[in-house]
Write a structure and sequence with these properties.
This protein folds into 4 domains: 123 residues, Immunoglobulin-like; 117 residues, C2 domain (Immunoglobulin-like), CATH 2.60.40; 153 residues, C2 domain (Immunoglobulin-like), CATH 2.60.40; 165 residues, no CATH class. The longest helix has 30 residues. A hairpin with a 7-residue loop joins strand 13 and strand 14. The strands form 6 sheets. The protein has a 5-stranded antiparallel sheet, sandwiched between helices. It is 31% helix and 28% strand. It is built from 16 helices and 25 strands. The two termini are 54 Å apart. The protein has 720 residues and is α+β, with helices and mostly antiparallel strands.
Amino acid sequence: MLDSCKLKTGGTLPFGYNKRTNAVGSSNADLLSANPGMYQLDITLKKGQNLAARDRGGTSDPYVKFKIGGKEVFRSKTIHKNLNPVWEEKTCILVDHLREPLYIKVFDYDFGLQDDFIGSAFLDLAALELNRPTDVTLSLKDTHYPDHDMGTILLSVLMAPREEQREVTMLMRKSWKRSSKFQTQSLRLSDLHRKSQLWRGIVSVTLIEGRGLKAMDANGLSDPYVKCRLGHQKYKSKIVPKTLNPQWREQFDFHLYEERGGIIDITVWDKDAGKRDDFIGRCQVDLSALSKEQTHKLELQLEEGEGCLVLLVTLTASAAVSISDLSVNSLEDQKEREEILKRYDVGFLQVKVIRAEALMAADVTGKSDPFCVVELNNDRLLTHTVYKNLNPEWNKVFTFNIKDIHSVLEVTVYDEDRDRSADFLGKVAIPLLSIQNGEQKAYVLKNKQLTGPTKGVIYLEIDVIFNAVKASIRTLMPKEQKYIEEENRLSKQLLLRNFIRMKRCVMVLINAAYYVNSCFDWDSPPRSLAAFVLFLFVVWNFEIYVIPLALLSLLAWNYFLIISGKDNRQHDTVVEDMLEDEEEEDDRDDKDSEKKGFINKLYAIQEVCVSVQNVLDEVASLGERIKNTFNWTVPFLSWLAIVALCVFTVILYFIPLRYIVLVWGINKFTKKLRSPYAIDNNELLDFLSRVPSDVQVVQYQELKHDPSHSPSKRKKNNPG
């Protein structure tokens, strides 16, 4: 029976398949050719035996991934420090045909580092007998070590056609059919898989402090930082140098995908320059044990170490995010828009991903399998995949909750690959404040660095509805940190770019000093005379309120220059050229990364250079943001600055300065007494963090689309 099945399907048995426990009928192969319809695969991941050790202590922290057709469909929980883990986890997978094997991959979880590969196997679905529970033992293999024993994985599987499901499964099939009416070619991405990306709640975590941490350095202190992980979501805190009682006071959010909760893994590390960071301790937060809509203060003792962490954890209902078909449009009625707006923090964003044209061919067949990733800060949603198409139509509507009106919407197009990570096809970044509501636009796709065009355009229709008062108040609060950003790496071009930007900011101050000095030297008598008269007038009549009044005058002067058509703002081609050079260097780095492995030996020097590179970027960005505030690069922020300066001018005019300083000092001294766990922030720096730097201005710049390059035009011009 087993051999006849292999002959009919042309397949092979999976690695380490246990023939004694798996008698497979030949009718399955006949069913494959006769009925390539839907199947339900019920899997129980039982346990692992004698898994390979990947940690220094001779153990591993194993977890398992299931993949079908290159898509991850299941990930187990992590069992810490165990080579014989017992999972007993169940999952249900919808399969559109049995020709795709189920890949099982086992990894060793390393927090903060790349997880170590333990081994893999595959299960030939065509070799399973339908409607019969089957116990499967799979031997894990690693192609790099083909002779080594990596252990075994024990599963229990049940394959059944969709027509023979139980009542619960009937409901799932109805949901599948509803989602498949619009795009029949997207059956390989099931409704269940799409639902898995919609979160059911928000976990808000405030990292307050650490107490009595273990000393890891020779001076009897540590440089501690914290890493938190919930599923695939990660967050890394700032480093607090030379202390055993660090104060972080950082706030971040995780998405909660499981109704029963989840576990936040927390590890504490000591930062060491030039070598691997030292492990201080770990702890966990079981979210299923916490009540919702309530803030919990937790003091967690560190395992495998000393001391404790103090956290505030709040579980709230899901932020309003959704995916629907294009026919669903809830923004037509004004009253309905106002009612919807009440349910959101600052506002809401609706993105209609319609179609793309003339995409890059990423496959050897001259086609691509494109899908879209739509991101707003830490909210990330995906479309379905349109297979073998360079002009895909998605026609999907995404709705996001806006927490900060100065956020940037990122839409990235990828090519789905079966056995490796998706290929990048193009990307656009659109600041929310630059969006024109209800207008369908063709956006030219850009490269990874957003510095220049790549092949293809994407058609989007975007609506942004927000409360201006709430948005203004949120501007003066700390900016949400994006916890999926890539780590900064050393780049010669990036270091040079930041140095040139820094130099340009410094040269502005130097030129201003030269200008003032020329007035003192009477290089130009009329100019020096005018400056002398202005100096006497300002000093004689100076009051403290003149400072915000002068800044207000500068903003007003630039505004009138812009509206009168005398805009003196220049297109920054220098930054564009530097960004293009950096993109070329990134491409070379990707190709030559294996040849440059020796740089790991210079880790300490590299880390110092990265720090210098980042400091130059921060200082240059600060100067550019101040300039762009007065240049009206973002009108909303410039108007907000005008309102704030008007208020400051009036306050300073009517209220003596000593009273203002007195109120400010009392507030600062009593802030910790009134709100012990308040997060420190500087309103001015928070405001400036929303103003784009010159690099961001170039990245967010919209490229012009030439309609003559669309496929429909080419077909008309070239009928043959």
